[in-house]
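User: Hi! I have a protein structure encoded as tokens and I'd like to know what sequence might fold into it. I'm fairly new to this, so please keep things simple.
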């Protein structure tokens, strides 16, 4: 059973990474030992943009890696559906792109 769950988590991680490349290509992944989360950075994101994302009920964990910047992010995808992952990343991308315009 554990091996089956690990395979499912790894598959979901690969799908998530593919969506990141497609939807948020600026996201810089930091390889982690966990297959339950994806760590990385979103360059040029600020506190105001993060607040806009949170207002849209998109939740992720920020600033975990130990630096003082707000662009460090951990995405936990285990309890999210593939559809929710895609939609959430799309909302993040649209919010970031609207702030850059």
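Assistant: Happy to help. Inverse folding works backwards from shape to sequence: for each of the 101 positions I chose a residue that suits the local structure. Here it is:
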């Amino acid at each position: 059973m554990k091996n089956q769950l690990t395979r499912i988590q790894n598959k979901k991680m690969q799908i998530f990474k593919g969506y990141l490349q497609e939807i948020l290509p600026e996201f810089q992944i930091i390889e982690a030992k966990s297959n339950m989360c994806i760590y990385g950075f979103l360059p040029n994101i600020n506190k105001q943009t993060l607040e806009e994302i949170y207002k849209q009920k998109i939740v992720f964990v920020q600033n975990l890696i130990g630096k003082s910047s707000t662009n460090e992010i951990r995405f936990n995808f285990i309890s999210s559906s593939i559809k929710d992952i895609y939609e959430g990343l799309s909302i993040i991308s649209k919010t970031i792109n609207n702030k850059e315009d």
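A useful reference point when you look it over: The chain has three helices and four strands. Feel free to ask if any position seems puzzling.
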